[in-house]
Amino acid sequence: MNNSTIETEYPEDTLLLDRRGENRVVEFMGINFAPIDDSVLLNRILEHIKNQENFGYFVNPNVDVVVKTHANPLWQKLINEAWLCVSDSRILELLAKFSGITLPACPGSSLVENIFENVLEPDEVVNIVGGDSELVEIVKQKYGLKNVNFYEPPMGLKDKPDEIEKCAKFLFENPARFHFLCVGNPQQMMVANAALKYKGMKGVALCVGASLDFIGGRTKRAPELLQRLRLEWLFRLLSEPKRLWRRYLVEGPAIFKIWLDWRASRK
Questions:
Q1: What is the pTM of this model?
Q2: 200-236, pLDDT tens digit by residue?
Q3: Under 8 Å CB-to-CB from 32, ≥6 apart: which residues?
């Protein structure tokens, strides 16, 4: 991909270079995001794999992750060491716009659906960590996949370093282009980060949370209209109020203070 295709309108001091010195990123609320949209994202990942570059992992923070990152240095470290970071949130997209920054939302579920529908070959090796055997079987049948390696870690993964290591070793022992990590944050970032130490490992680990639930039909995505209105969070809240009320109604609003503090610090 030619990096000149990425349009940027940011002050020069907001732009940084990633470890390869090629990909433009923009700092927003303490996180370095690649300001790319869906049309560029998958190509960026495929290019990384095609060039047989070293293993790396992909993260796409939403509002919940950004809030938790500001409360926990571990989250910050895990995000900073990712190969590629994009925004998963239309709320972050809007706040960035108010700050004079173009930061497109790239929903992880859309990326995963695109990969399963248009990229994966029926016979290629695919690794999945998280979910459950029934869900994985649904996804295998839906997309005609014949070579899926599945590992189901125990609950409480983030507090079990030995289990984190088992997950990372599973990825290493099963070479693949794509490693789908679906155990939520920070667990999936911890697994991906632990896998960095394995020499010779290739491919990309995608920290994509509940994306398999969406493509497997267990969880419905918000209608397109609500997505465009940036109300996908409301649809999810109404769909799973007992599980999500605290995230969206208690913890999530902290993003506005974080944003205001970040704006003040820039001045």
A1: 0.85
A2: 899 999 999 888 988 998 877 778 887 777 777 777 7
A3: 16, 18, 25, 26, 80, 85
User: What are 112's two structure tokens?
Assistant: 């995963």
35: tokens are 């300001």
How many other CB atoms are found less than 10 A from the CB of residue 6? Answer: 16
Q: 3-class secondary structure for the chain?
A: CCHHHCCCCCCHHHEEECCCCCCEEEEECCEEECCCCHHHHHHHHHHHHHCCCECEEEECCCHHHHHHHHHCHHHHHHHHCCCEECECCHHHHHHHHHCCCCCCECCHHHHHHHHHHHCCCCCCCEEEEECCHHHHHHHHHHHCCCCEEEECCCCCHHHCHHHHHHHHHHHHHCCCCEEEEECCCCHHHHHHHHHCCCCCCECEEEECCCHHHHHCCCCCCCCHHHHHCCCHHHHHHHHCHHHHHHHHHHHCCHHHHHHHHHHHHHC
Instruction: Provide the token pair at 19.
Output: 């470890």
Neighbours of 61 (CB within 10 A): 26
| Residue among 69, 71, 72 at smallest CA distance from 27 | 69
Spatial strand order of the sheet with 15-17 comes to: 15-17, 24-28, 31-33
Nearest to 184 by CA among 88, 89, 87, 65: 65
